[in-house]
Amino acid sequence: xxxxxxxxxxxxxxxxxxxxxxxxxxxxxxxxxxxxxxxxxxxxxxxxxxxxxxxxxxxxxxxxxxxxxxxxxxxxxxxxxxxxxxxxxxxxxxxxxxxxxxxxxxxxxxxxxxxxxxxxxxxxxxxxxxxxxxxxxxxxxxxxxxxxxxxxxxxxxxxxxxxxxxxxxxxxxxxxxxxxxxxxxxxxxxxxxxxxxxxxxxxxxxxxxxxxxxxxxxxxxxxxxxxxxxxxxxxxxxxxxxxxxxxxxxxxxxxxxxxxxxxxxxxxxxxxxxxxxxxxxxxxxxxxxxxxxxxxx
Length: 297
What we know:
There is one protein chain. By secondary structure, the chain is an alpha+beta fold. It folds into three domains: 2-56 and 66-119, Helix Hairpins; 129-184, SH3 type barrels, CATH 2.30.30.60; 190-281, 2-Layer Sandwich (Alpha-Beta Plaits). 51% of the residues lie in helices and 21% in strands. The strands form three sheets. Strands 4-3-2-1-5 form a five-stranded antiparallel sheet. Strand 2 and strand 3 (161-165) form a beta hairpin. The termini are far apart. Belongs to the MscS (TC 1.A.23) family. InterPro entries: LSM_dom_sf, MS_channel_1st, MscS_beta-dom_sf, MscS_channel_2nd, MscS_channel_C_sf, MscS_channel_TM-2, YbiO_bact. Residues 123-186 form the Mechanosensitive ion channel MscS domain. Its main location: membrane.
């Protein structure tokens, strides 16, 4: 009998709870407010980031001109800070709606932050290093760099990490504190250096004249060349060739493309002028010491 009464009371309590309209109204309002906070926070983040992108947009007619590399880096950094800050505030508002007192949470967060500061020294080092990378303008978004022997284009500089995309498509992520050596190929003009091999039988004065004409044409056609190309003369002697060196100052990180174009133009002009480019040969002996030179592919 007592067991029956117990189950009846339990049933009535559950029934009263389930059928309590005020309780469901309160839960519905809390869920609605949480969803509204999430949606509004995402909208605010999108609007603020759009405004930040507009502020950091490059304007050619602006009286204040800044380095586009630094502008892109600051734009990415400000967007990250805005996103983290707004989402953190949204989480605090949700916790408050759930009835959690924020004062102990904030105090605990302060104590936890102090403990993390001692325990996570690498994280602090990453953030400090990232700040100095941006402050000293060591490299910026869009720069081609070599970081710790890994070469690629900087995609993002965050508060903690740097993302670099290699030319084959891989994305390498470096904690800022681990960046010990950086080579930046995008700060200064680069030098295109092309070694040209000609046969010993060729007239070097004629070769220099042809190279001079080719380099003059290249300076006109190749917009990446920023100064008059130079013929440095004979650079070295090979087993079957004389090596001549030409140079051209180019825009930052464009020397590889200029090298390829110069080689193609020189090869085409040498073929037109009948200037022989050396290749390995085999001498076949026939009869009484007579020899015949045969080309070897």
